[in-house]
Design brief:
single chain, 1070 residues, alpha/beta, Phosphorylase Kinase, domain 1, Transferase(Phosphotransferase), domain 1, Rossmann fold, 5-stranded parallel β-sheet
């Protein structure tokens, strides 16, 4: 049949059709990865809402044993027509990961080991889901899918969350669920009483069925008979189909207790007991030492164009905050050890992730069975207590005693003694013993109730094992003096640990925006600039973009055209705008106050007071006396430590600055502000080019902005800061988009070349051969157009980077050919630095081949042509290449001197420092000081890893050679695995070939002949590449001799032939 297009997917055939809907097989068009598409029947419109509930529930979950939802939407007219009506117009659909193994009901385990593995995976899924407030409510073997080893993520997959609707939507007296597996509380007519224990009863029925062939009360009986059995009949005798561990039946019966309160309450407890039955693990006790567990398997490839439909449903992942997470977990362990309360206050501006972090500790503790979890939202007001209790008990909220009309005269202590607070305290006391409680009190600046409860729980240190995690916004406390005073009293009384949350670090921003939200690097860079590390702002702006249809698929993630503004929704900014308006009205000259603060906001998140004063002078503005002091007092800005005599302050929240700028934009002042700022910054000696270019672009000077951005990109590229280069490319693209379309600008091709260079450097988020292919396509277009238009400078630049693509691919001859072509083009430019750069690259090819004469000649030409180009960075590069040449000829003193000279003068270039450390380690290795060599390689490796530089693979290869020389084969194997991952990430097939060649000796020693043969296929590329290395040849020689001694003559012969080819190098010249 003809493939049916559905968004980024192509449907190929129907897998299943039931009473509720259809399931189709499909592939993701860009990657070819298989997916399953689920949709409801067109004659069942009443199923649309439960279907959407399932999408909402599963989109919140990210666990290897819960089915992954990839996208959702509704069938459009084109898909309906192409399917010839088989896909109903307007029907909701969702795309999920494909599981080729069918259902667990059709392929149950056949022995105890298989059963235990299946049950453990399902309990892990339930523990994760319950900790995030999602109940399944319809567990059965047919609602578990099996992903086999041929699928993307093998394992059990909990699916069909269609009944996981909020309790508020359930109807009294309506029984939902699969009759053979339904829990007693689901059958009772009264509303509520369902919770994690409900899923665990159903899970007990599933476990019984998997072991015995049928659930405890059968499955082919009338629903009424089954219902009565679940309500009143004890489970029958247990007769498993295969031997099970002793105690398994007793464990099953604890899951099938009729009374929910006497049943196992936590999936983690059930899992711990299950694993202890056969001694494979001791039962879990208390709070684990660490909250960290191995990273779960994730979808290995980004599905380009998929995920937009669920973007607003899926919570942003928690990134960074490692120290804060460790401290919170330590506090929970302290509570468990002392069996006494402890309070932690997460403080900071709105949107930095306080609530996200507080919810994380609660969810993680619940998931691991370390604690009960309660959550109180301060903005729920007097209803918060009732909602908290109802949510935990799975019942409808019941009214509590009324709060007093006014706070009692005795402050928090008196409020803590009121009947409503006492009632909540008794509820917490009644949660039982055996584990602590994590009580999240969110936004306490809006709830005197929450503060009173915190006082009641901490006033008596011996009372309860509760970890109270409070969150408060700095600006919220500024407008709530009574709550601020009460919080101060609580902090003093309870010795509250205060954790101040700052905005995300730049690397954390990029992790959230690119890996977490799937954005392209250019859009991630733009969004990071606007939001200054505030996760909430990132989410709000992205949601606004999605609502406006401003996102588009791109090979590197979701992107937005440069002309599309990144604006916060008006509803989000309105409170800030109103607060600022009230602040400005306090001054005798409110307009002057507003416009002076606008001048500060246009300079950036951080404001240097001297720079601000100069800009105000240029704008002929006189800031009213006390305006900065007032901003500080109102917590709209805060002072920042600065070097020397500088006075610097920053806006307390990105939304404050955005509200100020939006006011200036709406009243037509913003363009002039940017123009004057650009003029001011252009006169500064050390201005950061990207910052200046942003003002030039916002002022309407697109051509000047493009020139300035290209200067900034070149600066970042010199130090291999590829993420910053890619950010500059995004800014340059915006400048190009603002130029007239008739302009045929050579600078456009330079932008393409820099983009390709950054992609090769690993900054794009596209890994491996996909990255090199993406870079090659852009470069080939730039080369062709440069030749057609007679632009030698862009032609030379594009050819140099294209040579890098060949180097990564291990195509030595093609690399040299591209550089030779670039050298010819460079002669038409008259750029001494460009020619020297090309000669240096050609010298490095000769060094790889151990061609001493060729390398010396190229370096001499580079040094000669370089004399007129005053460039410290290139001088250091040439010195390092000369050091490598000296090392090749055995002149270790010269190699040492040159490398140390570079190390002493590279200044801020960490790349230069790493390269010098690498050369010095090679000197130590040449002098047989192997311990010093290992230490030196590890220092260089550490710097390269922090930089994310592809040279990390070369250092790993050299370190492995030392380890092999010392016969530390296990250490070498571990490092080889890491090196291969890095080589694959950068698409460096040539580097990968070196590592594969190095892996032959450990594999041969272990007798793994298949691994030897596989590695040989890749390693033989080195001969074509022209690579030579005696140490590698020696390792291969040892491996070949060992293989021959064990009788593996064929592989031995191939390994020894490769060894001789890599040893065969031109003789060093004197």
């Amino acid at each position: 049949m003809i493939a049916i297009p559905l968004g980024p997917f192509r449907l190929s055939g129907r897998i299943d059709q039931g009473g509720m809907g259809q399931v189709w097989h499909a592939v993701h068009a860009a990657t070819g990865l298989p997916v399953a598409i689920k949709l409801i029947r067109d004659d069942k419109p009443e199923l649309a809402e439960p279907f959407l509930d399932e999408v909402r529930a599963v989109a919140r979950l990210d666990h290897p044993n819960v089915i992954t939802v990839l996208d959702c939407g509704r069938i459009d007219a084109a898909t309906h027509t192409t399917s010839q009506g088989r896909l109903p117009l307007g029907s909701p659909w969702m795309a999920m990961e494909y599981c080729s193994g069918g259902t667990l009901g059709a392929a149950p385990p056949t022995d105890w080991a298989g059963l235990r593995a299946v049950l453990t995976e399902l309990l892990a899924a339930l523990a994760y889901s319950h900790a995030r407030g999602v109940l399944h409510r319809d567990l059965s073997p047919d609602n578990v899918l099996i992903a086999t080893d041929s699928d993307v993520r093998p394992g059990m997959k909990l699916t069909d969350f269609g009944l996981s609707t909020p309790l508020s939507r359930a109807e009294p007296g309506v029984i939902i669920g699969t009759p053979a597996y339904i829990a007693p509380e689901q059958l009772r007519s009264e509303l509520g009483g369902e919770g994690p224990w409900t899923d665990l009863y159903q899970f007990g029925c599933v476990a019984w069925a998997l072991a015995a062939g049928a659930p405890p009360f059968g499955k082919d009986r009338p629903a009424a008979v089954l219902a009565l059995a679940h309500l009143e009949v004890d489970p029958p005798s247990f007769r498993p189909n295969f031997p099970v561990a002793e105690g398994f039946e007793a464990w099953l019966r604890t899951l099938l207790v009729k009374d929910p309160k006497r049943r196992i309450q936590h999936a983690a407890d059930a899992s711990s007991t299950l694993l202890s039955l056969d001694g494979s693990r001791a039962p879990g006790v208390g709070v684990p030492v660490s909250w960290q567990t191995p990273e779960p398997a994730r979808m290995p490839a980004r599905m380009v164009g998929a995920g937009l439909g669920i973007h607003t449903l899926r919570p942003a992942p928690l990134v960074g905050r490692r120290a804060e997470r460790d401290r919170l977990w330590s506090a929970l362990r302290e509570v468990n050890a002392a069996w006494a309360p402890r309070a932690v206050l997460l403080h900071g501006p709105a949107g930095v992730g306080k609530t996200r972090l507080a919810r994380w500790i609660g969810a993680r503790a619940h998931e691991l069975g370390a604690a009960h979890l309660l959550h109180l939202n301060g903005y729920e007001g007097t209803d918060g207590f009732a909602s908290m209790i109802a949510s935990h008990e799975g019942v409808a909220p019941e009214p509590l005693p009324d709060a007093p009309d006014a706070p009692p005269a005795g402050g928090l202590a008196s409020l803590a003694a009121t009947p409503r607070v006492k009632r909540v305290r008794r509820f917490i006391e009644g949660l039982g013993t055996g584990r602590p409680i994590v009580l999240v009190l969110d936004d306490v600046h809006a709830s005197m109730d929450a503060l009173a409860l915190a006082w009641a729980l901490t006033a008596d240190p011996s009372a309860l094992p509760v970890l109270l995690v409070l969150t408060a916004r700095a600006e919220g406390l500024a407008t709530a003096p009574a709550e601020a005073q009460a919080l101060a009293a609580l902090v003093a009384q309870a010795e509250v640990l205060r954790l101040e949350l700052a905005p995300l670090l730049p690397a954390e921003e990029q992790e959230l925006l690119r890996a977490g939200m799937g954005l392209s690097p250019p859009l991630a860079h733009r969004l990071a600039q606007v939001t200054s590390g505030n996760p909430s702002m990132m989410v709000e702006i992205l949601n606004e973009l999605i609502a406006r249809g401003g996102l588009r698929p791109d090979p590197t993630g979701f992107d937005a055209p440069p002309a599309v503004p990144l604006d916060l929704p008006e509803s989000v900014l309105a409170p800030w705008s109103e607060r600022l308006a009230r602040f400005f009205e306090r001054f005798p000259q409110p307009v002057a106050a507003r416009e002076s603060v606008e001048a500060a906001a246009v300079l950036g998140e951080r404001v240097d007071e001297a720079e601000w004063a100069a800009l105000c002078t240029a704008l002929r503005l006189s800031p009213p006396p006390g305006v900065v002091e007032g901003l500080v007092r109102e917590r709209l800005v805060s002072p920042v430590d600065a070097p020397g005599d500088s006075i610097v302050w920053s806006f307390a929240h990105g939304m404050i600055r955005e509200a100020v700028l939006r006011g200036a934009r709406e009243e037509g002042r913003l363009t002039r502000l940017h123009h004057e700022a650009a003029t001011l910054l252009a006169a500064e000696v050390d201005v950061e080019p990207m910052r200046l270019a942003a003002h030039q672009l916002a002022a309407g000077s697109a051509s000047a902005a493009l020139d300035t951005t290209l200067v900034g990109i070149a600066d970042h590229a010199e130090y291999r800061r590829w993420a910053e280069v890619l950010g500059g490319v995004a800014q340059a693209s915006a400048a190009l988009a603002a130029l007239p379309s008739s302009v045929q600008d050579e600078r456009r091709l330079f932008v393409d070349v820099w983009r390709a260079q950054a992609v090769l450097g690993g900054a794009s988020g596209v890994d491996g051969v996909d990255a090199t292919a993406l870079a090659a396509r852009g470069l080939d277009r730039a080369i062709d157009e440069s030749r057609d238009r007679g632009w030698p400078e862009t032609l030379a630049a594009a050819l140099i980077v294209r040579a890098d693509v060949h180097r990564f691919a291990g195509e030595g001859a093609a690399e040299a050919q591209r550089l030779t072509e670039a050298r010819v083009a460079a002669w038409g430019v008259g750029d001494a630095r460009l020619r020297a750069t090309i000669d240096l690259r050609l010298a490095r090819i000769a060094l790889r081949k151990r061609d001493v004469e060729g390398a010396a000649g190229r370096l001499a030409e580079a040094r000669g042509g370089f004399s007129s180009a005053d460039d410290d960075y290139l001088a250091a590069e040439l010195s390092l290449a000369e050091a490598e040449l000296a090392l090749l000829t055995g002149d270790t003193p010269s190699a040492t001197r040159l490398a140390r000279e570079v190390l002493s003068c590279v200044g801020g270039s960490r790349t230069g420092a790493a390269a010098a450390l690498h050369v010095l380690a090679c000197v130590e290795r040449r002098l047989s000081r192997l311990d010093a060599a290992v230490a030196g390689y590890r220092r260089a490796l550490e710097v390269y890893e922090e930089l994310g530089d592809a040279e990390v693979v070369t250092v790993i290869a050299h370190l492995v050679m030392v380890l092999l020389d010392r016969q530390r084969l296990d250490d070498a194997a571990l490092l080889l695995a890491a090196g291969r991952r890095e080589a694959d990430r950068f698409g460096a097939l040539g580097h990968r070939a070196v590592l594969d060649a190095l892996s032959i000796e450990p594999a041969a020693r272990r007798g793994e002949i298949v691994d030897v043969e596989v590695a040989l296929v890749s390693a033989k590329r080195l001969v074509t590449w022209g690579y030579r290395d005696p140490s590698l040849a020696a390792a291969l020689s040892r491996a070949g001799v060992g293989l021959a001694g064990r009788g593996h003559i064929g592989p031995a012969r191939e390994v020894l032939t490769l060894s001789r080819a890599l040893e065969d190098a031109p003789a060093p010249s004197s």
